[in-house]
Design a protein that fits this description.
Serine Threonine Protein Phosphatase 5, Tetratricopeptide repeat; 328 residues; elongated; 12 helices; alpha+beta; Glutamine Phosphoribosylpyrophosphate, subunit 1, domain 1; single chain
Length: 328
């Protein structure tokens, strides 16, 4: 098993100049990642997996209406915020990388990729990054990897991203899966993350990153990331159901809660709110089996029934309330 001490010794023997900006004080995020843009929606994102703890907090950076940056290998974290600032100032991705690496005495062990809001990309692999290492940058995406089991990782990621259809997040995770099928990180797996930013900044930072999911430590981080993304999609529908209730659009609320429950059939909260929406539409008979399942798993949910009536979020008669609470 290759360990960090061995790698550091190996790099020392290659006579890398150690300066105040020493690579050895930086985290080692040997990894594979993809930065990409959806040519239809304009969304931009970065997805990454590594045998390193909490890789998402180190590698991926993004800003709505600006672009995304992946900084890896011996990570210079400043590449993230500094790269975004350079993009914001009007620099092209290739110019950004040239500026970032020019003043970095440890550039030979860095790896970085930059994508802007027009889908222009550039990526860089230092000549002393640990093999197998490389990068492929094309319009709307770039893939990059270091310390891989073999050289087929990057080409496999490109193929998967191009051939997968659907939302950007799902396409990027497909690229991670393809990398892992080729052997991935020679040390194995530990963490993964995905970040999606909007094509235009709204001024509300809580709206500008629609997806920001991380798996910090897991034996199967990509599968766990997929599970979290599915949860995110389900809660998207649930949140839209909540919004429809606020607007008194009970038909839309029923639809959105139903879609959420379909995506997470074992989640009792999804069942509960779907049942509530059915009652509000006068479909109490259809709701009773859902309430029955929910209350059997956790009786506390039944306590919400009168509370929701008081808040006018559950619309029913006293008699219907009794029927719901006594469902068997």
């Amino acid at each position: 098993m290759i360990n960090k001490t061995y790698l550091l010794a190996l790099l020392l023997l290659t006579q890398i100049t150690i300066s105040a900006q020493s690579p050895y004080s930086d985290p080692l995020a040997s990894t594979y990642s993809i930065v990409a843009r959806d040519s239809i929606t304009g969304e931009m994102g970065i997805a990454v997996q590594s045998h390193a703890f909490s890789v998402g907090s180190i590698v991926g950076w993004g800003e709505a209406g600006i672009g995304v940056v992946a900084t890896q290998s011996f990570v210079n974290r400043a590449y993230g915020p500094d790269g975004l600032k350079l993009l914001k100032s009007g620099k092209l991705p290739a110019e950004v990388i040239k500026i970032l690496t020019a003043s970095d005495s440890a550039r030979d062990v860095r790896q970085v990729a930059v994508l802007d809001m027009q889908g222009r990309t550039a990526s860089y692999t230092g000549k002393k990054c640990i093999q197998a290492a490389g990068n492929i940058a094309e319009k709307n995406f770039s893939v990059q990897a270091n310390l891989m089991l073999n050289e087929t990782v990057c080409p496999a990621m490109v193929k998967a991203f191009k051939e997968t259809h659907g939302p950007l997040a799902e396409r990027m995770i497909a690229a991670l899966e393809a990398a892992q099928k080729e052997g991935g990180d020679i040390r194995g797996m530990q963490s993964a993350s995905i970040l999606i930013v909007n094509p235009v900044a709204t001024g509300n930072i809580w709206e500008d990153k629609p997806i920001d999911l991380r798996v910090e430590d897991h034996t199967q981080p990509i599968e766990e990331l997929k599970r979290l993304l599915n949860l995110y999609r389900a809660y998207e529908h649930s949140n839209l159901g909540d919004l429809a209730v606020e607007k008194n659009d009970l038909t839309l609320a029923e639809k959105e809660y139903g879609l959420a429950e379909k995506m997470l059939p074992d989640d009792i909260e999804m069942k509960f709110w779907h049942a509530v929406s059915l009652v509000n539409k006068g479909k109490t008979d259809e709701a009773l089996n859902l309430f029955k399942t929910v209350f059997a798993k956790d009786a506390n949910w039944s306590i919400l029934i009168p509370r929701l009536r008081k808040s006018e979020l559950l619309i029913c008669s006293d008699e219907t309330e009794k029927i719901i609470l006594n469902v068997k």
